[in-house]
Amino acid sequence: MRKKLFAGIVISGLTAASLVFAQITGLTITPSSNIVGTDLSYTFSGTFTATTTVIEIDFPAGRGFDLSGSSFGLVQYGGSSTSCASVATSSLSATCTLPTGVSIPPNTAVTTTLSNVISTSSGSHVITVVTYNGTSSNGSVTSSVILNPKAISNLRCDASGQAGAIWLWWTVPMGIVNSGQGYQLKYQQGNSIDWNTALTYTQDWLRADPGTLEQKLVTGFNPNTQYTFAMKVLGNDGTTSHVSNAVTCYAPAAAQPSTDKIAPTSQITNPKSGDKILVGTKPKLKERQRMKEDLLSRKLKFHSMERIGF
After folding, report:
1. Can you tell me the distance from the alpha carbon of 22 to that of 7, in angstroms, rounded to the nearest whole number?
2. C-alpha span between 252 and 14 (Å, rounded)
3. Which of 56, 74, 83, 254 could hold 130 in an S-S bridge, CB 3.0 to 4.6 Å?
4. How far apart are CA 63 and CA 119, in angstroms?
5. Quick one: how many helices (H) and strands (E) in the chain?
6. What are phi and psi of 143, to 5 degrees?
7. CA dihedral of 31, 32, 35, 36, whole degrees rounded to 10
């Protein structure tokens, strides 16, 4: 990253760089709102008011960015375009140096794209663009972009063993808020949900690290009633994700005891219940059960003969 000139001087609430030395007017960064990810692309457009041979783009520290694998597209200016003669990248900075003998003249509209940007943190981020003529800085201009957290994509539900209670599961996505409450949950009776009219389920579930499998029990629903659920992930600086996939489950009635109500049955027909059994007398089994016993006995006898060599 090159050293910026006059970066810390403040005049009437504006930095000297943005007031006097800003040599880019009308800077726009597209898209201005996006979703965190590992393959983001940003297009930078503006009018360069000073001769430019080097373009540097700086991303903020501590905000989950990594530009070490980023790349520049064509630099389009006026009616011409050129590739970067060299590109230098670090975790927070990417610099494009134009070919020898090529320069962007003053008051020229310029557009270029920076691709393969990694960002894992949601929120509002300030990006700085610096231009140079050779090694002399023309100044810097800043613009903000917003990154929203990813949406939950694998929400699922299941009835619990408690009346009116349902289990929810999901995997924590990238970009969830750094600390504090991480979710918004809504529900609606029936097999569909409209996020705008659905009821909010009050909860204070704290965020967990991305990739963590979460399991939460939601209670207080009408037994034997069908409900549909959906969630949003809360991000930094008030950002939110898109709505998750919707899931539908029945809230169970009161849990039933798992008592076996079928009386036990016996395969013995003689002696009858309450009779005495004479010593040496085998009990008489029901025909089907006796046949199974005989078959098992024959198999055991056959295997015994095999072992002794018959």
Report:
1. 11
2. 61
3. 56
4. 8
5. 2, 24
6. -150, 150
7. 100
According to DSSP, the residues that pair with 30 across neighbouring strands are 43
Average pLDDT in the 102-127 region?
Answer: 96
Exposure of 116 in the CB half-sphere (CA atoms within 13 A): 12
For the chain, the maximum distance between any two Cα atoms, rounded to a whole number of angstroms, is 117
* SS3 readout for 74-91: CEEECCEEECCCEEEECC
* Residue environment code for 39-75, b if the CB has 16+ CB neighbours within 10 A, otherwise e: ebbbebbbebbbbbbbbbbbbbeebbbbbeebbbbeb
For residue 4, give the nearest of 16, 249, 118, 206 by alpha carbon. 16
- DSSP structure string for 11-42: ETTEEHHHHTS--EEEEEEE-SEEE-EEEEEE
Gap between the Cα atoms of 230 and 236, Å rounded: 20
Res 294 pLDDT > 50:
yes
Q: Which residues pair with 216 in a beta bridge?
A: 168
Question: For residue 122, which of 152, 149, 91 has the smallest C-alpha distance?
Answer: 149
Burial classification of residue 143, based on how many CB atoms lie within 10 Å of its CB (0-12 exposed, 13-18 middle, 19 or more buried): middle
- What's this model's pTM, rounded to 2 decimal places? 0.73
What is 231-290 written as a DSSP string? EEEB-GGG-B------EEEEEP-SPPP----SPP--SEEESPTT----TTPPPEEPHHHH
Q: What is the pLDDT of residues 125-152, one digit of tens each?
A: 999 999 999 999 999 999 999 999 999 9
Which structure tokens are listed for 158? 């299941």
